[in-house]
Amino acid sequence: MVMSRVIAFLGAVLLVVATLSGQSASAQGSAAAGGVVGDAEHGRYLVEQVAMCGECHSTRDTQGNIVPGTRFMGGPMPFRPQWSADWPVSAPRIAGLPGYTDELAVRLLTQGAIKRDGTPLRRPMPAFRMTPQDAADVIAYLRSR
Question: Are 58 and 70 in contact (CB under 8 A)?
């Protein structure tokens, strides 16, 4: 009787540990290039508070406010200097990182704004030099959008 209670108790403990382990892995995010697991919450901080990606990669209303539901969905550039004919007219969608494998997205974020075809992105896109972990975090967050 005592032995069956001990076995039942140990089984319950193992079930709880396995469940918690699975929750922490899924809360972290997805694996990016090189098997680095991204933390989507830290990626949110980097995207929204540090790099401020939504400032260009969203649509704005006539008052200059980001239109609800368009954050990271791309849109017209909020500014265009008269001195640059090469300045892009619009910023692409980055929600979900369409067209980018994790490897290409890591390269873009760690090696300085490199397009999928290997050419540099146009200004005003910053030439980020993130760590592989920060890049994985950003990728995990943008893939969740």
Answer: yes
37-79+89-145 homologous superfamily: Cytochrome c-like domain (1.10.760.10)
Q: Using one digit for the tens of pLDDT, what is the confidence trace for 31-81?
A: 665 667 899 999 999 999 999 999 999 999 999 999 999 999 999 887 776
Q: Which two three-digit tokens encode residue 43?
A: 């990626």
With residue 135 as reference, give the H or E element that holds it.
Answer: helix 132-143
Question: SS3 for 128?
Answer: coil
For the chain, the structural domain boundaries read 37-79+89-145
Exposed/middle/buried for 114, CB within 10 Å: 0-12, 13-18, 19+?
A: middle
Query: What is the model's pTM?
Result: 0.73
